[in-house]
Write a structure and sequence with these properties.
By secondary structure, the protein is an alpha+beta fold. The protein has a domain at 427-521: Beta-galactosidase, Chain A, domain 5 (Distorted Sandwich). It has helices at residues 14-19, 25-36, 40-53, 68-71, 77-84, 110-116, 118-122, 125-137, 141-156, 180-194, 207-225, 236-252, 259-277, 289-308, 316-331, 351-357, 364-372, 385-394, 407-410, 483-488, 492-495, 499-506, and strands spanning 59-60, 88-90, 98-100, 382-383, 428-430, 435-439, 448-453, 468-474, 477-480, 516-517, 520-521. The strands form four sheets. A five-stranded antiparallel beta sheet has the order 5-6-7-8-9, with no helix packed on it. It is globular and about 75 Å long. The N and C termini lie far apart (52 Å).
Length: 522
């Protein structure tokens, strides 16, 4: 654990920030001279110009332009963005409700938001919805709303290190919306906004706005710096909070005084997780298919950042393993394109995997598998402020810039025909991960049987007592579903006064001696 004196986002000063900022070249010299003269407009101008025009590092988009907002977050992105202009927020998690957060003072009702749509706000999901709407339409109202939302969010929900942090930094971080996972997710969406053209379009982000935004990101980076050198673990939260976050701030902000240490720590943690949890047969030490998909975000994002910037994060062998893992998830997908359900959560669309998460190691085989399952695969897409500056000098206001859009938005949900020669054997077994997938062929009408067989190779993760489960899909329909998943997600876990007893019974081995047919447990 590192000692950091900046614990309150409200009280950190501009000088605190500037003392930890190292601008290179001419703008760095201009900043030094301006600070010596206490010339604030020139100080702010130098910092803003640098971050508007720097030639690197490259940013591979995280959620901007991605399918996630419509397949996981549910709902058309333009409909949600238009609602946001009137302070109507759509939750990105069940039950996907709409909430009006307008406050009497003209701002946002954060108390109501925390109670009803916590994750949507804490992760700044709305920022990516707004930036994507701008990319699709060229309407700068969406950028203005994103700017104002971020300002209001920080003002209304400042980070203040919690007292319990020093005893349990997984449970305690910055209080309120500022948990350790969501601050990192929020920051990545802010970088999406910074690389969609928001800083380059005239009249949206003033020099003061850019200076303020980078200062907030620096403050968040300092909080993750506290974790440098902490003990290594194997759980997912450790991967994101200690690994992905440190690597993100370290690589994307080389101007910060702590950047090299953060990047090195992030790489150390990410490599530890990859070495410890990636299984030799091509899948991950996690016996829930949807959670394996979730972890592709946690490893795919830093790998994309490394690949975009020529950083060797993983060995060549490990990169091939990552590609094999993407293939595992394709094999674990039913012919209708829906991930098979084993474990704590139902499967779903894999558009995000093939459009974004898997792109660092996209191959002809993965592309063919994606298309066979109905998804047009993407390519690793990234931008630099310098490229954006040149683009928006030629841009006609009101026209769609289409920067950073994945195939989900550019191909009309239509996939090209797969290259049959690139498709692998449709039947495959993963003895270490504990899965077997039997597929008659790579067509939507194929017969498909997925079997989950418990294995002792899994030391942790979402392994329960369903020693053997299977899913049968044929003729375009799932005839038999995994009972364990249905039981784990039973609404009685949450709604009734006997929820704890229900959960204990439904997770027990005896309760799994049943089938699911036509949405009923038998």
């Amino acid at each position: 654990m590192q000692d950091v004196r900046f614990a309150d986002q409200r009280s950190v000063s501009d000088d605190d920030f500037l003392q930890h900022l190292r601008l290179p070249g001419t703008l760095g010299r201009r900043l030094t001279a301006a600070r010596a003269k206490c010339d604030r407009p020139s100080i702010v101008g130098a910092v803003a110009e640098h971050f508007r025009t720097r030639s690197g590092p490259r940013w591979p988009f995280y959620m901007h332009g991605s399918p996630w907002m419509e397949i996981n977050g549910r709902g058309e992105v333009m409909e949600k963005a238009d609602g946001l202009l009137a302070n109507r927020f759509r939750s990105s998690w069940p039950p996907f409700q709409s909430v009006d957060l307008s406050a009497s003072d003209g701002g946002f009702d954060w108390k109501k938001g925390m109670a009803e749509i916590y994750g949507t706000l804490s992760r700044s999901v709305v920022v990516a919805e707004l930036s994507t709407a701008f990319a699709l339409t060229g309407d700068t109202r969406y950028l203005v709303k994103a700017r104002d939302f971020i300002r209001a969010f920080v003002d209304g929900n400042p980070f203040l290190i919690e007292e319990g942090f020093f005893e349990d930094h997984d449970r305690y971080f910055g209080g309120g919306f500022n948990n350790s996972g969501d601050v990192y997710s929020r920051s990545k969406r802010w970088l999406d906004l910074m690389h969609c053209g928001a800083l380059q379009v005239p009249g949206i982000f003033s020099d003061e706005d850019v200076f303020w935004l980078v200062k907030q990101l620096w403050f968040y980076a300092m909080q993750y710096y506290r974790l440098v050198g902490d003990v290594l673990r194997r759980d997912n939260h450790h991967l994101t909070d200690h690994g992905g976050a440190a690597f993100f701030y370290g690589v994307m902000f080389p101007e910060f005084s702590i950047a090299k240490k953060l990047a090195a720590e992030g790489a150390r943690v990410i490599r530890h997780h990859f070495t410890s949890n990636m299984l030799a047969d091509g899948d991950y030490a996690e016996h829930c298919t949807k959670y394996q998909y979730h972890i592709t975000y946690m490893l795919g994002a830093p790998l994309a950042l490394a690949k975009a910037n020529g950083i060797r994060l993983l060995s060549a062998k490990q990169e091939r393993q990552f590609g094999q893992w993407v293939e595992f998830l394709a094999n674990a997908t039913k012919p209708d394109g829906i991930l098979v359900e084993f474990g704590d959560e139902f499967g779903g669309s894999l558009a995000q995997l093939f459009c974004i998460n898997g792109t660092p190691m996209m191959s002809p085989r993965i592309a063919a598998m994606a298309r066979a399952l109905g998804y047009e695969p993407g390519k690793l897409s990234s931008q630099t402020p310098a490229e954006l500056t040149r683009f928006f000098k030629r841009w006609t206001p009101g026209t769609s810039p289409r920067i950073g859009l994945s195939p989900w938005f550019t191909h009309g949900r239509n996939a090209a025909k797969p290259a049959k020669a690139a498709l692998p054997n449709p039947t495959v077994r993963y003895p270490l991960g504990g899965f077997s997938f039997f597929r008659s062929d790579w067509t939507p009408a194929a017969d498909y049987l997925a079997v989950s067989h418990y294995t002792e190779s899994l030391p942790h993760s979402h392994v329960h007592w369903d020693m053997m489960s299977f899913v049968l899909h044929t003729g375009g329909q799932t005839l038999i579903g995994d009972p364990a998943t249905w039981l784990y997600t039973d609404q009685r876990h949450f709604d009734e006064t006997t929820s704890r007893e229900n959960r204990g019974y439904l997770y027990s081995v005896d309760a799994h001696n049943c089938l699911v047919m036509n949405d009923d447990t038998l």
